[in-house]
Amino acid sequence: MFFRVCVLSLLVFVIVSAEKKQRQALCLANDFKCTNGVCIDATWKCDAEEDCSDGADEAGCPTDCSGPNMFKCANTKCIPAQYKCDNDDDCGDKSDETNC
Q: What are the structural domain ranges in the chain?
């Protein structure tokens, strides 16, 4: 039984590694390529969350909430636009949950 679990774990690791390598090699038109070659969804660039392990997706982004994927809270905090109207007070003042 232990042997089967080890073999299955190894197989899953190999498949995931192969998919990751393939994903690194071919970025789609709607992807952003991180410095290390990993592709992420382009909408994740400048969303105030580091999705690339090296932070490349947040490098050179506006810091004044003017990015297309940003929302400026009433208290001037910047959050990713996708957090607006998600039933979670991401701003801390509930302004991201108004007019939903």
A: 1-60, 62-94
How crowded is residue 90: how many other Cβ atoms within 10 Å of its Cβ?
A: 18
User: Which tokens in the block code for residue 40?
Assistant: 């992420």
SS3 64: coil
What does the alpha-carbon distance between residue 69 and residue 92 come to, in Å, rounded to a whole number?
19
Which 8-state DSSP code applies to residue 58? G
Specify the 3-state DSSP secondary structure of 83: helix
pLDDT tens digits for range 29-49:
999 999 999 999 998 998 888
Residues 6+ apart with CB under 8 A from 92: 73, 75, 77
- Determine the 3-state secondary structure of 61 from DSSP: coil
pTM of the model: 0.52
Tokens of 72: 């400026």
* Helices (H), ranges, the chain: 2-25
**The CATH fold of domain 1-60:** Low-density Lipoprotein Receptor (4.10.400)
